[in-house]
Design a protein that fits this description.
The chain contains 21 helices and 28 strands. With 627 residues, it is α/β, with parallel strands linked by helices. Helix 11 runs antiparallel to helix 12, helix 17 packs parallel to helix 18 and helix 20 packs parallel to helix 21.
């Protein structure tokens, strides 16, 4: 590779070392300033070697840090709002954290090139979140702290990805380790003669102990898996991923940057909830840190080598922040497999609709959460109208509206709806209390506005228009005493985790507000079979209540219960069919997963009859081979 590059570059440029760091090719040069002056050279080299390329200065070729900092600050416009500058002599990088990173990058990277020309350092640019986020800060600081060890890890991964193939055979197998004819514990193994890749590793809501079948032969030995790919951060896809590191896995986890931060937040909370409820957590928090250290983040649309014979491209799934439809290109065009993850096909207030346009796609592994014949969600506008009516009615009756919501996705969608409704006078202005991780998850959304819908992105980047900073949003940070004061106070709205009423602060709100018929419990998201949320939604009013490990008691609910269906992050039956119908190219085979038995069967049957594609509703521990 180094010989190829040296043959392509001008004689005055010097290369000291070429190495793979994960999927990227890194060129260390003794002439970093001269390299930066060659406009268009890096894209040309990337096209020649068909790799993503980063150029870094060889040690000792950069301007001294103190002098470099002054020059960098002079090159970057003051309006960029630099909040942090850190130098890493080992790799020749300088971390630039700023409120407006676009101004640091410059038009088509012009400012980055200027920095390298002037001081020799390669700039790595990050956005300072408009809302303070302890998760984003902790993750970034941890990765900075582990930078040297992570460097060794990336070089090891690079060697493994770019090893010489050992087999001339061509086939692909998909093995189902979970979420077949059920919702939850999503997990699959994608196998080729050369490599094995694990896609997702989640838990099953409301079913303690039901974990993915990691003991299956296709998944073992776990330490030899080439890569893990995480489609999104929800716990039914990510909760048990740290277990892999407990079992000896030491390889990469590929996902998007916001998913990396969100999965850390949700997994640590998962451990905390288990401890508070007297259950033994399946792994220690140290395993979450190991997972973060091994994460390689990808941008939507970037084609990335993750194994000698597999390339991965992630596309927007429209489900939650950073969620991805994952496209696997196996061999030299031999077979292409798409894992939908969870998708929302049409635009929402938060996200653009899921992408389903691929160069090639023979096999689709498709979610079926709302795959039944009658699983049609209310139109978004009608859903918002119904939500407004229910909140108004409850307020007029002197009651409080309690909404169990997933911290990631649905909560932020509802915050946007409620903020606009109050701003435009459709509902009275009243406090909206955020309990659990909702505010922290919202702060992470503001750290990655490029993953949000176009108009919302622009509003967040202007502090005076950021809807998430509205005065009515108040964090519940005073524990049980604050909850009691809120419950005894004026009518308000409460958004609280957990979204399926499987634990967390929602249990306290049921105890405090459940006895008053003027209050309303409003479901806005999917309630999986076996969860307390599903039982309440289905009419049950006597519910078990365990007060943080004390003796369990029965709680009688007298508050109103209602549901609004249009706020789900999942496509409904129409959306699922439309995703496949309009997919380019249309797949030859579809595996319908991540839905209960009737949902997967009915969607599978409909796709076969309407689109003339081969379909299956797999069971767990089935393997499908594609030759």
């Amino acid at each position: 590779m180094q010989e190829t590059i040296e043959a392509e570059i001008p004689d005055e440029l010097e290369i000291s070392r070429v190495t793979f760091e994960g999927p990227e090719l890194v060129i260390y040069t003794d002439t970093p300033q001269e390299f930066a002056e060659q406009n268009g050279l890096i894209p040309q080299l990337a096209s020649t070697v068909r790799k993503r390329i980063t150029v870094r200065p060889a040690a000792g070729t950069q301007v001294r840090e103190r002098d470099a900092e002054a020059q960098i600050r002079n090159l970057i416009p003051e309006k960029a709002g630099i909040t942090n500058l850190q130098f890493y002599p080992t790799t020749g990088e300088v971390l630039v954290e700023a409120e407006k990173p676009g101004l640091v990058v410059g038009n088509r990277g012009s400012t980055l090139r200027e920095i390298q020309q002037e001081v020799g350092w390669t700039a790595d640019v990050l956005r300072t979140p408009p809302m303070e986020s302890s998760t984003v800060d902790n993750v970034r600081n941890y990765l900075i702290q582990e930078r040297d060890e992570r460097q060794e890890f990336l070089e090891r991964v690079g060697d493994r990805i770019h090893r010489e193939p050992t087999s001339d055979e061509e086939w692909v197998r998909v093995t189902t380790l979970g979420c077949c004819r059920e919702v939850g514990r999503a997990s699959f193994i994608l196998s080729t003669p050369e490599s094995r890749i694990l896609v997702d590793c989640g838990d099953k809501p409301g079913a303690e102990g039901e974990v993915p079948y990691l003991q299956a032969p296709e998944a073992n030995p776990i330490p030899d898996i080439d890569a893990v790919v995480l489609t999104h951060a929800h716990l039914d896809h990510s909760a048990l991923l740290p277990l892999l590191f407990k079992y000896g896995y030491d390889g990469p986890v590929y996902t998007t940057q916001p998913t990396r931060d969100l999965m850390g937040l949700l997994q640590l909370d998962y451990l905390d909830v288990a401890t508070k409820e007297g259950r033994s957590p399946p792994y220690e928090s140290e395993m979450v840190r190991e997972e973060l250290k091994h994460t390689i983040t990808l941008e939507y649309g970037n084609v990335t080598d993750i194994a000698p014979d597999v390339k991965l491209t992630m596309h927007n799934a429209g489900h939650i922040l950073g969620s991805a439809v994952s496209h696997f290109h196996v061999g030299d065009g031999f077979h292409n497999v798409v894992f939908s993850g969870d998708v929302h096909y049409t635009d929402t207030r938060l996200f653009n609709g899921a992408s389903n346009d691929f160069p090639r796609a023979e096999t689709l592994v498709m979610e079926s959460t709302y795959g039944k014949r009658d699983d049609y969600q209310t139109d978004q506008e009608d859903s918002e109208r119904k939500l407004t009516e229910l909140v108004n009615r409850t307020y007029e009756n002197g009651g409080t509206t309690v909404i169990p919501a997933f911290a990631v996705g649905r909560s932020q969608e509802l915050m946007l709806v409620l903020e606009e409704a109050m701003r435009e006078g459709h509902i009275p202005t009243m406090p909206i209390y955020l309990d659990g991780m909702i505010r922290e998850a919202t702060a992470i959304h503001t750290a990655y506005p490029e993953f949000l819908r176009d108009g919302l992105r622009e509003r967040i980047l202007h502090e005076d228009k950021n809807p998430f900073l509205a005065d009515q949003f108040q964090q519940v940070d005073g524990g049980e005493e604050m909850r009691e004061d809120i419950a005894a106070g004026e009518p308000c709205i409460i958004l609280s985790t957990s979204g399926m009423v499987t634990g967390g602060p929602i249990m306290s709100w049921l105890k405090l507000l459940g006895g008053d018929p003027e209050n309303l419990l409003l479901f806005v998201g999917y309630q999986a079979q076996g969860t307390l949320g599903r039982r309440i939604q289905s009419g049950r009013r006597e519910v078990p209540f365990n007060d943080r490990g004390s003796r369990s008691e029965q709680l009688t609910l007298r508050l109103g219960v209602d549901s609004v269906s249009g706020f789900s992050g999942h496509a409904d039956r129409n959306g699922l069919e439309d995703f496949v119908r309009t997919m380019s190219p249309r797949p030859e085979e579809v595996l319908c997963v991540h839905g209960d038995e009737s949902a997967t069967d009915q969607l599978s049957s409909a796709l076969y009859q309407e689109l003339d594609v081969r379909t299956h509703a797999p069971r767990n521990l089935e393997t499908f081979r594609f030759d």
